[in-house]
Design goal:
The structure holds two protein chains of two kinds.
Chain A: H1 2-27, E1 44-49, H2 57-72, E2 76-81, H3 85-98, E3 102-106, H4 111-120, E4 125-129, E5 140-145, H5 147-161, E6 166-171, H6 176-179, H7 183-192, E7 197-202, H8 212-223, E8 229-233, H9 238-248, E9 251-256, E10 267-273, H10 275-287, E11 294-297, E12 304-306, H11 324-338
Helix pairs in contact in A: 2-10, 5-7, 5-11, 8-9
Chain B: H1 5-30, H2 38-56, H3 59-73, H4 75-83, H5 88-111, E1 116-117, H6 133-150, H7 153-163, H8 165-170, H9 175-201, E2 205-206, H10 213-223, H11 228-250, H12 255-259, H13 261-287
Helix pairs in contact in B: 1-6, 1-9, 1-10, 1-11, 2-3, 2-5, 2-9, 2-10, 3-9, 4-5, 4-9, 6-7, 7-9, 10-11, 11-13
Classes of the chains: A alpha/beta, B mainly alpha.
């Protein structure tokens, strides 16, 4: 028995070792600092990303934001790409050690790390994009988005394009923060076609963010009831929603980046976050001394938009490019929201 | 209205991957190996199926590669638990963790993306009569496994090895050979389950896309008492409960409540089956 126990312990230890080495390969922090010429004013900015930038448009925009900021302030910039939790920590530490004027971090992953670092380094200025620390710190500024404004416009497109008069949404979880992607979609559709029927399904389950098969089945329950426009706000499940919509000849809407490329002819439009705008304006605010505040970016500030309302819509492979009349009406709605004549209810407002 | 054909179709689609994995688990259970690595083997199958289908353009080669890869992956359990006499539970948990890390790492190195690989030109399995051929294969596999386990000499020896390995050995039946066979079969079945999930249910790969289906298969093995038909009924119960849960959301029930549907059904089924079993046992217990 002891011999058997020792053997199984040995075995467990070796397998654990294999597991850790397999993940350690990922842990190699990729720090390809793309140094630009150090400028005259000496202002320096560092961007830390939660994932590899690669083809991630959300992060690519953040990189172009920090480059523009460096150009504007005649300064220099560095980008630290993380690949996992360990390298996120290492990269933030490396950024703090270099003491740039502003450290910019994108994503909720950094909220806790920044809270620790901000307390230890009160002189260092931080800017978090798309998230915020739970406590407020004098040296941490936050840039968050009013996604609901963009989702409302997507809903309006759906209301105008729906033939059955039924528009639905597949959302990740039933929480106020996620309802920002489904409730305003229904509101937008009802704004342009008052009789529209709306319904939302939540993916849920054991891993709601990864389960595309489950998201697809949720979309199927809507499609089988005649819903022909579906907002996909199911993280990785979005691809499942697109597959379901494509199979039934229905239409879907994506989030964060241009997802039309995943299913051309099925995805109508996307609610996109302009991280570049948030980074640029956020740095500007920090440099002018407005620190420790949270600024929200919506349609007015250009922080939230639709692929259809941006340049390059004709090459976006989005269905909306063929519906210029719909885009005109959506532009009018956007102008009303920007002018403050129309407010979109925020499900996450407390 | 509520119980329509869409509900049944949805339940049957959810059933296939769970059923294939659970059948593998049941065969292992009968051979005396408690296999909780189904989730990890299935995930390896998902990745291999998508990667092979993408590079060869053939979904069928994807299925074949998934079965082979998951079969090879199951050797970790076979060598660890049978040859080295390690703890199957520890090994199973390690295999599940390793599969998540390994497929995530491969996704990054092979495809250069993170999270999800998805492409409109990725070849999926064809549908025959609304289902993939693997769906029909899974039903056939239930019948084959049921007959083999109860009627064929292989099945009898396998069960003997599981129940009394020493007695089997004295009769000249090699427990090692049968346990290896059972584990490799479960690996192949889990690979097929993964291929069904990644090329049938959807046509893409997402990190951790099995999302607990392997664990549900483990529960189905226990609920169905490792009998192929029992496992089929248990897995079907899960599929129906899940599909019904989706419908209940449409009727206005909150997601948190409908999410619980499969688990409530499991508890109910466990309660019913054990109550009946106890009633059957009690009279003889009172007599002695």
């Amino acid at each position: 028995m002891p011999r058997r126990l020792r053997r199984s312990l040995q075995l467990a230890a070796t397998t654990a070792l294999v597991v850790t080495t397999a993940t350690a390969c990922n842990a190699a922090a990729k720090k390809d600092a793309s140094d630009s010429a150090s400028g005259g004013s000496g202002k320096s900015f560092t961007l830390v990303t939660p994932d590899a930038v690669g083809q991630n448009e959300f992060l690519k925009l953040a990189v172009s934001g920090i480059k523009d900021a460096a150009k504007q302030h005649d300064g220099s910039q560095k980008v630290y790409e993380s690949t996992d939790t360990a390298s996120q920590q290492q990269n933030v530490q490396a950024a703090v050690d270099a003491e740039p004027d502003v450290i910019v971090l994108v994503g909720f992953e950094f909220a806790d790390i920044v809270a620790q670092q901000a307390e230890k380094n009160p002189e260092q200025q931080f800017l978090i994009v798309d998230a915020c620390t739970t406590k407020t710190y004098k040296n941490v500024s936050c840039a968050v988005f009013r996604e609901h404004e963009g989702v409302f416009l997507a809903g309006a497109e759906a209301g105008l394009l729906s033939k059955s008069g039924k528009v639905g949404a597949v959302d990740v979880l039933d929480t106020p923060q996620f309802r920002r992607y489904s409730d305003p979609f229904a509101a937008g559709a009802k704004k342009v076609a008052a009789k529209t029927e709306t319904s939302t399904r939540f993916v849920g389950g054991q891993s709601p963010f990864d389960d595309s098969a489950r998201a697809k089945e949720q979309a199927n329950t809507l499609l089988s009831k005649g819903y022909d426009q579906i907002m996909a706000a199911a993280a990785a499940g979005n691809y499942g929603v697109f597959e379901a919509a494509k199979a039934k000849g229905a239409y879907a809407y994506g989030v964060d980046v241009n997802q039309c490329l995943s299913a051309p002819g099925t995805v109508v439009d996307n609610v996109i976050k302009r991280t570049d705008v948030a980074v640029e304006k956020g740095i500007e605010a920090v440099l002018t001394g407005k620190t420790g505040t949270t600024v929200s970016y919506g349609l007015k500030e250009g922080g939230i938009s639709l692929t259809g309302l941006e340049d390059g819509v004709d090459s976006s492979k989005c269905v909306i490019a063929e519906h210029k009349d719909v885009l005109k009406q959506v532009e009018a709605l956007r102008d009303q929201i920007v002018a403050g004549k129309l407010t979109v209810d925020d499900p996450a407002a407390s | 209205m509520f119980l329509d054909s869409d509900l049944l179709l949805s339940a049957l689609r959810a059933l296939t991957p769970i059923l294939l994995a659970a059948l593998g688990g049941a065969i292992c259970e009968r051979a005396g190996v408690f296999n909780i690595g189904l989730e990890g083997m299935m995930l390896m199958g998902c990745f291999t199926a998508v990667a092979t289908s993408w590079f060869t353009g053939s979904a069928w080669l994807g299925v074949l590669a998934a079965a082979l890869a998951a079969g090879a992956y199951s050797l970790i359990l076979a060598v660890g638990a049978v040859t080295l006499r390690g703890d199957a539970v520890v090994l199973g948990v390690a295999m599940n963790l390793l599969a998540v890390g390994l497929t995530g790492f491969l996704l990054r190195t092979v495809f250069g993306v993170q999270g999800t690989f998805d492409d409109p030109s990725l070849a999926g399995l064809p549908l025959v009569g609304g289902f993939t051929p693997l769906t029909y294969l899974s039903w056939a596999a239930v019948a084959v496994a049921a007959v083999l386990l109860s009627r064929h000499v292989w099945g009898l020896r396998l069960r003997g090895v599981g129940e009394a390995p020493d007695a089997a050995a004295t009769l000249g039946v090699s427990p090692v050979k049968y346990k290896y066979g059972a584990i490799l079969t479960s690996g192949v079945l889990c690979g097929l389950a993964g291929a069904q999930l990644a090329l049938g249910n959807v046509t893409l790969f997402t990190e951790n896309m099995t999302a607990g289906r392997g664990w549900i298969a483990v529960v189905a093995v226990m609920l169905g008492r490792a009998a192929p038909v029992g496992v089929l009924l248990a897995a079907l119960l899960f599929g129906l409960a899940e599909a019904a849960g989706f419908r209940l959301q449409g009727l206005g029930l909150p997601q948190q409540a409908t999410d619980a549907a499969p688990y409530v059904v499991t508890l109910g089924a466990l309660f019913l089956t054990t109550a009946r079993r106890r009633r059957r046992i009690r009279p003889s217990g009172a007599a002695s």
